[in-house]
Amino acid sequence: MDLAIFLVQLLNGLQYGLLLFLIASGLTLVFGVMGILNLAHGSMYMVGAYLAWYFFQGTESFLFSAVISAVIALMLGVLIERTLICRMYKRNHLDQVLLTIGMIFVFNALQSLLWGNDPLGVDVPDALSGSLHLTEVVEYPAYRIFVALFCVAIAAALYFVINRTRLGMLIRAGESNREMVECLGVDISRLYTIVFGAGVMLATIAGVVAAPMASIVPGMGEHVLISCFVVVVIGGMGSIKGALVGALLVGVVDTFASVVVPDVASMIVYILMAVILLIKPQGLFSN
User: What's 286's DSSP letter?
Assistant: First the structure.
């Protein structure tokens, strides 16, 4: 592998890893704070991609499509938490799994009803349709660099909110001792609604920014959900920092494995997960 190919694949791996982080951060945040194992999280990613396509067809503005999709995602997350998830707080994880699996079937049926089963696509925004020269002979798509930088900005924003704001203090306190936080007068149900809505919005935004880079197809949420679970298991359930490190590891390893050993590439990430769990059974940064 020459230097140019190595550089391109490294950037691909980092960009893919950062996109995985954007999805997995919502999954691990909801589990860490609320104790909810949301298997329908990947469906939110799918919803984001389809919403981006739908609004882009009508407006031809990717920015408007992204903003309106994020707003709809937040409202959808609040609705789901208030009507369904709130009933699961005192139930075991099996009940949570059964409910959220049922939600996957509902979202897949709605997707098929609303948008059909044909592959769809979203054009790359004109302002980001070019390429940047990394070297004299190597170019890299500007949109992929934008996605990577956008995910870094989201990671920085999450760090700031969780570690430097009153809301973040309440989130961390609720994660550590929910009953005590409630006894201190905090409306824990409102806090949970905010957290779940934010988690859904993160997955939906990931689907929006991923839409111009890949085909929008039925069932795309289930595929990405598996990768996200690998990320959060490697990083440690409930840890945002672990989700970032785990996502970057998975992204880089999976990308290089697809080039170097394509016949067994699908196994490499799971082998990585097994090795890490043998060394640290709770993940790299377990809470």
Answer: -
Q: How many CB atoms lie within 10 A of CB 26?
A: 30
Residue 1: predicted pLDDT? 59
Q: Which of 221, 233, 285 has the alpha carbon at shortest distance from 51?
A: 221
Task: Please give the Cα distance from 147 to 131 (Å, whole number).
Answer: 13
User: Is the separation of the CB atoms in 247 and 235 below 8 Å?
Assistant: yes
Burial of 56 (0-12, 13-18, 19+ CB in 10 A): buried
Closest CA to 227 of 196, 260, 270: 270
Two tokens at 255? 């990308």
- The beta strand positions in 104-181, using DSSP E, are 131-133, 139-141
Return the structure tokens found at 12: 């691909």
Q: For the chain, which residues score pLDDT lower than 70? A: 1, 176, 287
Closest to 127 (Cα-Cα) out of 110, 141, 107: 141
Residues 6+ apart with CB under 8 A from 274: none
User: Which two structure tokens, joined as six digits, stand for 187?
Assistant: 């409306």
Burial status of residue 113 (CB atoms within 10 A of its CB: 0-12, 13-18, 19 or more): exposed
Q: Which residues contact 188 (CB under 8 A, 6 or more apart)?
A: 174, 178, 181, 182
What is the pTM for the complete model shown? 0.92
CA pair distance 220, 214, nearest whole angstrom: 10
